[in-house]
Amino acid sequence: MDPFSAEGELLTVHNAFHQGQYQTVLDFDTSSLSESNILPARVLKLRAQIATGDAKGAITNIKKEGGPDLAAVKAFAQYSLGDTSAATSQIEQLVDNSSDNNTVQILGGIVLQTVGRTEEALSLLSKHQGNLEAIAIITQINLQQNRTDLALKEVSAARKWAQDSLLVNIAESWVGMRVGGESYQSAFYVFEEMAQTPASTSTKSLVSQAISELHLGRLPEAEAALNQALQNEPKNIQAVANAVVLATVMGKSKEQQQHLEELKTIQSDHAMLNDLEEKSNLFDSAAGKYAAKVA
Fold first, then answer.
1. How confident is the model at residue 164, as a pLDDT?
2. What is the 8-class DSSP label of residue 201?
3. Based on CB atoms within 10 Å of each CB, which residue in 92, 99, 225, 278 is the most buried?
4. What pTM was computed for the model?
5. Cβ(213)–Cβ(221) under 8 Å?
């Protein structure tokens, strides 16, 4: 039986992880789990540890233990710490030797995509055998490439055999945010339910709710959700980055600059900052062509 299915004993911790409830994952009691589920549960706990900013602690916990699952987690932790070269090298070895491993597919796909090796990431992820997280990441990659058609195809196929899956609901909502129209509202319902239900609320779900509110043009509501997220985690990268966007849309230049400075402090190489710098340089270059000439 699939341990992540509705009848599986890892469903609760699996859903908690994907809802961004990382402390719940870390506190999850694994003592009563069947032997076959101990490693998958440990992988989720280590990933939650990394997500909470303790990648060094995750590496220490793994020590010198073997196996592709823990090796993939260790490589992902190294990547999270900025050791891109070592992490990528380790992932490459794992792909060569253990490409059929779920953890290698998931974390390897994330690392490869993040370093710009999209085709390799998709090739690795496509080896999955009904893994919903792999489907969710493939959907994300398709959306990043502006292939909404492929993303929609991916989640539609998954919906046929995983109707009640939280991950399918989330991935479908990502696509809905890109499709727009009535899909904005459908996505909002999913994210609002997660964010406002005590059993599932998290900074991650609050940010998702805020983004859907923003797309619906409900700026005060988006601001309220983001403020709550920032109150929970002042240095949450996604919350701060989206606060920059919201402040810009609302014309709040002072708040925009404040959040930009916060983002630079938290992650100086964030994609938004790199994109802003690139656009600024392009503008300066274009403006230079029309500079007034002194006679």
1. 79
2. -
3. 225
4. 0.88
5. yes
